[in-house]
Design a protein that fits this description.
The complex is a heterodimer of chains A (149) and B (429). Chain A has 149 residues and is mainly alpha-helical. Chain A is built from 8 helices and 2 strands; from the N terminus they run αααββααααα. Helix content of chain A is 56%, strand content 9%. Chain B folds into 2 domains: 145 residues, Aspartate Aminotransferase, domain 1; 257 residues, 3-Layer(aba) Sandwich (Aspartate Aminotransferase, domain 2). In chain B, helix 4 runs antiparallel to helix 12, helix 5 crosses helix 12 and helix 6 runs parallel beside helix 7. The chains are: A mainly alpha (149), B alpha/beta (429).
Chain lengths: 149, 429
């Protein structure tokens, strides 16, 4: 885990909540709630270009300039599956308001391990989660003018 | 059949024969379950309820032991070696072919081609027979419920030849609309390629009738038997189709091997699909002549031990009896249909009268992905998604379904566990 991630207060806050919910049912309920709080995308935004491959369900992700932080990105996302939408919400909490270069050095794998999400989801679903992270990094790289790593 | 298959019993096969299991008249599911080591494990601290048999079935110890034995005691390459091990391995490999021939009621073991799986078997027919017999404007008839493996190879053939694909829609029960089917058959129809049993809806297609109608139009028929072979007796002579394919891994055998059956005369006039060793008669740089079927279609070192494992799997299901398996699964289907139908907000897809123990469903509210996630945490393994049948999902107008598919070792108690887990899903949404 990089120091970048270890000192991330948003991750710490999420991790504390997750640890408090030690029962899997409660944890899923919390993830579902996070998804329900996420503003849905317009149907017009659910385009093939915004769609993330690699999920059993459908996931869409978009990036705009963050109006509150110059140079930072604001992500929006949606899914037709509740639990997956909750996972999108977790990723948005971790990545929103960061600059492309911050996103590119962010240890996403470490963060998901810290939240025990990688371990609690089966590989195919994790692949969905990691496909989302890959897409977020690709969008950041595009903005930073850097090749995707 | 016996007069055809009564060539000398291979010595090695006799030595390493797998004893038939569960020959009791009564269906003893507890005893059957004891043959499957994996069924004793737990997931997330709960007993595994494995209801993803339509995707792949678990393996009995008889299959595991046969393969282990082959690697430990008589493994070598086949059809080449003059040495003892190669002879024993070849005998066991060809004995597996005999078993598969007996299993499908093929009159001749040379009609059994071992492939990498059912997918490769369909690609073989498309590339070899299809390339030779299907031209521009010729027609191939499929149904809406086909697995992608029985769609994409024909689309690729269409790219190469300019042939036309015609698709039969379904009735509300989930069976091909035979009136439309009849209207699609014509003088240009060269092939009808359909599932024997739908992997999503469980529908047992009226294949006897469909084959007769196709033959009357002068077309050949390929049946995708992946879901049928593990669930009911199949007999090539009774079916009268022209090609039949299925995979081993859904039949309680190993992955990496499948079967293409076709009459010897059909195979004999088909050109090779892949070139390499094992399939040649004589090679010079000017010209190569090819072996007779089935070896013409088995280029390279085959999946030797997998074939032996498949032979053991065939012995295993025949030991229980395909009729007994079908009756057991029918009973599970009836009970599961009753239990799931009673769940509020649950929609079952596929209500054909002739149906295998495959139940596709959705709940009002959660996505199939959500359902599968919660079921998984409850120890219940089902498949969620489009099941490699996206045209069928479009037809049903759903993005995905959850599918519980039963096998010979599943129990009525597991139906209860499924129903309870689905009720739990409803707590979340």
């Amino acid at each position: 885990m990089s120091s970048e991630t270890a000192s991330d207060p948003r991750l710490e806050e999420l991790a504390e909540t997750f640890e408090f919910l030690d029962d899997w049912e409660e944890r899923y309920r919390y993830i579902i709630d996070l998804g329900n709080e996420l503003p849905p995308l317009d149907e017009a935004e659910k385009t093939p270009a915004n769609k993330v491959e690699g999920c059993v369900s459908q996931v869409w992700l978009l990036a705009d300039e963050d109006p509150q932080h110059a140079g930072a990105l604001r992500f929006r996302g949606d899914s037709d599956a509740h639990i997956v939408k909750g996972l999108v919400a977790v990723l948005l909490q971790l990545f929103n308001g960061r600059t492309p270069s911050e996103i590119l050095v962010y240890d996403a794998r470490g963060a998901l391990d810290r939240l025990d999400l990688a371990g609690h989801l089966s590989p195919s679903r994790s692949n969905g989660l990691f496909s989302m992270v890959k897409r977020i990094r690709a969008m950041a790289a595009e903005r930073a003018g850097a090749p995707v790593q | 059949m016996s007069e055809v298959l009564n060539r000398e019993t291979p010595l090695a096969a006799a030595e390493h024969a797998v004893p038939g299991a569960n020959r009791d008249a009564a269906y003893d599911v507890a005893r059957i379950r004891a043959d499957f080591p994996i069924l004793t494990r737990e997931v997330y601290g709960k007993p595994l309820v494995y209801l993803d048999n339509g995707a792949s079935a678990q393996k009995p110890v008889q299959v595991l032991d046969a393969m282990d034995e082959a690697y430990r005691r008589y493994y070598a390459n086949v059809h080449r070696g003059i040495h003892r091990l190669s002879q024993e391995a070849t005998d066991a490999f060809e004995a597996a072919r005999d078993k598969v021939a007996r299993f499908v009621g093929a009159p001749n073991h040379d009609e059994i081609v071992f492939t990498r799986g059912a997918t490769e078997a369909i690609n073989l027919v498309a590339n070899s027979w299809g390339q030779r017999h299907i031209g521009e404007g010729d027609e191939i008839v499929l149904t809406v419920l086909e697995h992608h493996a029985n769609i994409v190879p024909w689309q690729m053939l269409r790219e190469r030849t300019g042939c036309v694909l015609k698709v039969v829609p379904l009735t509300p029960e989930g069976s091909p609309d035979l009136q439309v089917y009849e209207s699609l058959l014509g003088p240009r129809t060269k092939l009808v390629a359909v599932a024997h049993i739908s992997n999503v809806l469980g529908t047992v297609l009226p294949v006897r009738q469909m084959i007769d109608m196709a033959h009357a139009a002068g077309a050949k028929v390929l049946l995708d038997g992946c879901q049928a072979a593990p669930h009911m007796p199949i007999d090539m002579r009774a079916l009268g189709c022209d090609f039949y394919v299925f995979s081993s891994h859904k039949l309680y055998g190993p992955t990496g091997i499948g079967v293409l059956w076709a009459p010897f005369e059909t195979l004999n006039e088909m050109p090779p699909y892949q070139g390499g060793g094992e399939m040649i008669d004589r090679v010079t740089f000017e010209e190569t002549t090819f072996k007779s079927p089935p070896h013409r279609f088995e280029a390279g070192t085959p999946a030797i031990v997998e074939a032996i494992g498949l032979g053991a799997a065939v012995d295993y299901v025949e030991g229980i009896g395909l009729d007994a398996i079908a009756a057991h699964e029918e009973s599970l289907l009836r009970y599961a249909t009753e239990r799931l139908s009673a769940i509020d907000g649950l929609t079952l897809y596929g209500t054909a009268k002739e149906k295998a123990a495959i139940l596709s469903f959705n709940l009002e509210g959660p996505h199939a992905h959500d359902v599968g996630t919660i079921l998984d945490r409850s120890g219940v393994a089902v498949r969620c998604g489009h099941h490699c049948a996206q045209p069928l999902m479009d037809f049903l107008d759903v993005p995905a379904t959850s599918r519980a598919s039963f096998g010979l070792y599943n129990t009525h108690a597991e139906v209860d566990a499924l129903a309870a887990a689905i009720e739990k899903v409803k707590d979340f949404f």
